[in-house]
Design a protein that fits this description.
Blueprint (H helix, E strand, L loop, with lengths): L9 H9 L3 H11 L7 E4 L9 H16 L3 E6 L9 H13 L7 E3 L4 H13 L3 E4 L3 H7 L17 H13 L8 E4 L14 E5 L13 E3 L1 H11 L4 E5 L6 H10 L7 E5 L2 E3 L6 H9 L14 H7 L3 H11 L6 E3 L1 H15 L1 E3 L1 E2 L2 E6 L8 E6 L9 E6 L2 E5 L19 E4 L4 E9 L5 E9 L16 E2 L1 E3 L4 E8 L25 E9 L11 E4 L3 E5 L8 E7 L6 H7 L2
Helix pairs in contact: 1-3, 3-12, 8-9, 12-13
Bound molecules: adenosine-5'-triphosphate and magnesium ion.
Length: about 575
C-alpha cells in the first residue's frame, strides 16, 4: 500500500483511457441515470479464421467500455455454422486476445445454448410466431421481395401450430434431408425492413459440429442465435459493427417475444477499413488457402498473428484503435497510421543496434591487423536505463553498399572516393582507393582512419557531413532479413467487382535479404523482441530465427515513405 498516493479522479481516468466517443457518452449517461449497475459486453468472433486488425477495433471498444464502467467482457464463440468452424481457430483467437492484453470473464459458446435456442424456437411455434416452411431456398429468396416490393407469403405460413411443432421435432430427430424444411419466424412479409420478412430461424444440416458432434442436425441461423446468446449471458450492451444495424429490429422482436433472462441493447459503430489490404475473413482465407502468403501469421497479413510476427506490439495496436476512435461513419484509414503508432511505441522502447543489410567490405589500411578495438555505444539515445555496449572494430569492416558512391553527386554526404565520413561511435575514415573485381564491380574499398577522431579525443569533435553504420567483418553474424511492402498494389483491392482482388497483390511485398551482417550482440536476440537497426528501421527476430540461422523481419521503416501517397489518395 502506498499511503501517499493521491486519489485518482475516476471520470478523468476513464476518458483518457478510452476516449469520449458516442458509445462512451451514451453509456455514461445511462450509468448516471442508474439504468445499470455495471456494463457487461462481449466479443463474439466466429471461429472460422484468425482475428484481424478490424477485430482489434471491436475488441478494444467492447473491453474498454466494460472496463470503464465497472463491468466485464465475455469471449463468446459464435459457432452456429458447423461447415467452417474449427478448434484451431478458437486456440488462435484466445492467444491473440491474451496477447492484446485483455482478460475475458467467461469463455462462452453459442453452441452451448443450442438446447435453450431450441426451446425458444418451440416457444415461438407455440405462440403462433414461427412456422415450418417446405419451400426450397430459391423460392424463399424470391418470396422475400426487394427493397421496393413487398414479399409474398409462403403457402405454409398458416400451417397449424400442432403441425409446425410436429414437423420441427421431426426436423430435429433427423427425419428429413438438408433443405427439405426450414423454420421461419412469422413476422411481416410486407415489412419495409427485409430482415423482418419471416426470417429463417433453423436449417437442416446433417453436419458434424466441432463441439456438439452429431447431436444436432438442425442449426440456428446467426440472426436467431446472436441476440438470444447476448440475453442468456446478461450482456447489457451488445456493441457491434454497422452491418447489423438493419438487423436490430429483428433482434428486438426476438427479445420481445421470448422468455429471455435479460434485454441487451445493441449499439452499432463503423467497421475499420485500412487501405492497401483486405479485412474480410473470406478474402484472408483465400490468401492463405491459395498460397499467396505463407499462412495466417505471414507478417504481411493484417491479422493479429501476422502483425505480431511483423513486430507490432499490443500497445501500438491499442493506441491505434484509440486514435481512430469510434464513430458511425465509414472511413478508410491509411496503413501508415497503423505504422506510425508502432513507430512511436518502438521509438521509446526498442534498443538500437547496427546491422548492414547489403555489405561492402572496407579495409582500414592504417589499422593494425589482428587488433580489436571497441566502440562504446548507448543502447538507446534517450533512455540511459537501457545501458551501453561495446561493438568490436577491426581492420576489415562492412558498410552498406548504398553508403558508397563511386561517382557521387555533390550533395552525396556519405562515402565517396577521396571523401570522409564518420563511422558511428568510432572515428572518421577517408576512402583512398576503390578496388574493382574482374567484372568491373566494386570488390572493396581501401580507407584510412583518423586516429585523432576517436570518441573521447579532441579530434572527435571534427565535423564531417555524414555518419554511417558499420560492423566488424570478423565479428559480424550473418542473418536473413525480410523487408516488407504493402500487400496490395492498389488502395482498395476489392473495389472493382469484375476483377478478383488477388489480381492486385503486390509482387514485391516481400524482399528477402540473404546475407545481411549484424553486430555480434544480436546473435542471441530473443524472438519477438524489437530492435532498431540504426538508419534502417525497426526489426524483430522471427519465431523461426536460430542462433546459427538468424532471421529478422522489418516491422516498420524509420520514416513514412507512404505519407505523400496516402495524402494524394485522400485528395
Ligand atoms: P469478416 O467480415 O472479417 O468475416 P466477421 O464480422 O464475419 O468479419 P466475426 O468473427 O463475426 O467476423 O467478428 C466478430 C466481431 O468483430 C463482430 O462483432 C464484428 O462486428 C467485429 N468486426 C469484424 N470485422 C470488423 C472490422 N473491420 N471493424 C470493426 N469490427 C469488426
Ligand atoms: Mg460476422
Amino acid at each position: 500500500m502506498n499511503d501517499s498516493s493521491t486519489p485518482i479522479d475516476e471520470s478523468v481516468a476513464e476518458e483518457s483511457a478510452v476516449g469520449t466517443h458516442f458509445i462512451h457518452t451514451r453509456i455514461k449517461k445511462e450509468m448516471a441515470e442508474g439504468k445499470y449497475e455495471q456494463v457487461i459486453t462481449r466479443f463474439p468472433p466466429e471461429p472460422n479464421g484468425f482475428l484481424h486488425i478490424g477485430h482489434a477495433k471491436a475488441i478494444v471498444v467492447n473491453f474498454s467500455m466494460a472496463e470503464a464502467f465497472r463491468g466485464y467482457t465475455n469471449l463468446r464463440f459464435d459457432d452456429t455454422n458447423p461447415a467452417k468452424e474449427e478448434q484451431r481457430y478458437i486456440d488462435a483467437i484466445k492467444q491473440d486476445l491474451s496477447w492484446m492484453g485483455y482478460e475475458w470473464k467467461n469463455e462462452c459458446f453459442a453452441s452451448d445454448y443450442f438446447d435453450t435456442l431450441y426451446e425458444y424456437a418451440l416457444h415461438l411455434i407455440d405462440h403462433g410466431l414461427a412456422y415450418v416452411d417446405s419451400q426450397d431456398a430459391e423460392a424463399i429468396r424470391e418470396g422475400r421481395g426487394t427493397l421496393t416490393e413487398p414479399g409474398t407469403e409462403s403457402p405454409d405460413r398458416d400451417r397449424p401450430i400442432a403441425e409446425n411443432k410436429d414437423l420441427f421435432e421431426r426436423m430435429r430427430a433427423g427425419e428429413f434431408a438438408d433443405g427439405e424444411y426450414v423454420l421461419r419466424a412469422k413476422i411481416d412479409m410486407a415489412a419495409p425492413n427485409i430482415n423482418l420478412r419471416d426470417p429463417i430461424l433453423y436449417r437442416i444440416r446433417h453436419l458434424h459440429h466441432y463441439r456438439t458432434g452429431d447431436r444436432w442436425c438442425i442449426y440456428p441461423t446467426y440472426d436467431f442465435a446472436h441476440g438470444q446468446s447476448d440475453a442468456i449471458e446478461h450482456i447489457t450492451h451488445s456493441l457491434c459493427s454497422l452491418e447489423f444495424e438493419d438487423h436490430r429490429p429483428l433482434y428486438d422482436w426476438f427479445i420481445e417475444h421470448l422468455p429471455v433472462p435479460s434485454k441487451p441493447v445493441q449499439i452499432e459503430f463503423a467497421r475499420l477499413n485500412i487501405n492497401f489490404t483486405v479485412l474480410s475473413k473470406r478474402k484472408l482465407t483465400r490468401l492463405v488457402d491459395e498460397g499467396h502468403v505463407s499462412g495466417w501469421d505471414d507478417p504481411r497479413m493484417p491479422t493479429l498473428a501476422g502483425l505480431r510476427r511483423r513486430g507490432f506490439t499490443p500497445e501500438a495496436i491499442r493506441s491505434f484503435c484509440h486514435e481512430i476512435g469510434v464513430t458511425k461513419s465509414e472511413s478508410v484509414i491509411p496503413f501508415g497510421v497503423l505504422e506510425r503508432n508502432l513507430r512511436d511505441d518502438l521509438n521509446v522502447h526498442a534498443e538500437r543496434r547496427m546491422a548492414v543489410l547489403k555489405p561492402l567490405k572496407i579495409v582500414l589500411t592504417n589499422f593494425e591487423a589482428g587488433v580489436t578495438e571497441s566502440a562504446h555505444l548507448p543502447n538507446h539515445p534517450q533512455d540511459e536505463t537501457l545501458g551501453t555496449r561495446d561493438v568490436p572494430i577491426t581492420r576489415e569492416l562492412y558498410i552498406e553498399q548504398d553508403d558508397f558512391m563511386e561517382e557521387a553527386p555533390k550533395k552525396f554526404f556519405r562515402l565517396k572516393p577521396g571523401g570522409e565520413v564518420r563511422l558511428r561511435g568510432a572515428f572518421i575514415i577517408r576512402c583512398d582507393e576503390v578496388i574493382h573485381d574482374e567484372t568491373g564491380g566494386i570488390k572493396e574499398l581501401h580507407c584510412s582512419f583518423d586516429p585523432e577522431s576517436r570518441s573521447g579525443l579532441p579530434g572527435a569533435e571534427r565535423k564531417v557531413k555524414g555518419t554511417i553504420h558499420w560492423v566488424s567483418a570478423e565479428h559480424a553474424v550473418p542473418a536473413t532479413v525480410h523487408l516488407y511492402d504493402r500487400l496490395f498494389q492498389v488502395a482498395d483491392p476489392a473495389a472493382d467487382k469484375d476483377t478478383d482482388f488477388t489480381a492486385h497483390l503486390n509482387p514485391d511485398s516481400i524482399e528477402t535479404v540473404e546475407h545481411a551482417m549484424l553486430e555480434p550482440s544480436l546473435k542471441d536476440w530473443p524472438a519477438g523482441d524489437p530492435v532498431q537497426f540504426e538508419r534502417l528501421g525497426y526489426f524483430v527476430a522471427d519465431p523461426d530465427s536460430r542462433a546459427d540461422a538468424l532471421v529478422f523481419n522489418r516491422s516498420v521503416t524509420l520514416r513514412d515513405a507512404w505519407a505523400k501517397i496516402d495524402q494524394a489518395q485522400q485528395g
